């Protein structure tokens, strides 16, 4: 089983835009809720009915994350245009890549083990890297 790490928001991640920072915090919160649920599903034995309920809850959290990320990207791209961010095209491409990667993860939702592994990989590498490192360029 892949290790599922909690990703925590830190004030050092701020891009000095209160609305976008709040959205980033919410993305981290939803991601951590999903991680906690994934750990619960992978590490404990449940009867089939309970396990199906937990799987549905995890899928719902992932869809919620996906929808929230799309809203956030729209708002962030608007902000980048307002401040004439010089790397906007690359950043928008990175946003599209994340949306596509998230869609690919959601395609595995019937195979819970693969779904959890793919989701964990996506959030522990790409999301963390994008929000911590990629978005830091906006603030700078």
Overview of this structure, please?
By secondary structure, the chain is an all-alpha fold. 76% of the residues lie in helices and 0% in strands. It has five helices and no strands. The chain has helices at residues 18-43, 48-82, 88-106, 112-134, 136-139. α1 (18-43) runs antiparallel to α2, α1 (18-43) packs antiparallel against α4 (112-134) and α2 (48-82) packs antiparallel against α3. It starts with 17 loop residues before the first helix and ends with a helix.
Walk me through the topology.
Elements (H helix, E strand, L loop, with lengths): L17 H26 L4 H35 L5 H19 L5 H23 L1 H4 L1
Helicity level:
over 70%
Average of per-residue pLDDT values:
84
Query: Helix segment count?
Result: 5
Biggest β-sheet description: none
Q: Helix-strand pattern, N to C?
A: HHHHH
* Share of residues in strands: under 5%
End-to-end distance? 38 Å
Class computed from helices, strands and strand pairing: mainly alpha
- Count of strand segments: 0
The dominant shape is: elongated
Uncertain spans = none
């Amino acid at each position: 089983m892949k290790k599922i790490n909690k990703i925590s928001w830190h004030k050092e991640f701020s891009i000095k835009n209160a609305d976008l920072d709040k959205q980033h915090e919410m993305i981290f919160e939803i991601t951590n809720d999903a991680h906690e649920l994934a750990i619960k599903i992978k590490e404990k034995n449940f009867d089939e009915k309970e396990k199906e309920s937990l799987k549905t809850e995890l899928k719902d959290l992932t869809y919620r994350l996906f929808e929230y990320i799309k809203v956030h990207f729209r708002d962030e791209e608007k902000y980048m245009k307002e401040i004439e961010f010089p790397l906007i095209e690359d950043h928008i491409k990175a946003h599209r890549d994340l949306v596509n990667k998230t869609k690919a993860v959601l395609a595995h939702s019937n195979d819970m083990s693969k779904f959890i592994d793919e989701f964990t990989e996506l959030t522990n590498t790409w999301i963390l890297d994008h929000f911590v490192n990629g978005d830091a360029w906006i603030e700078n």
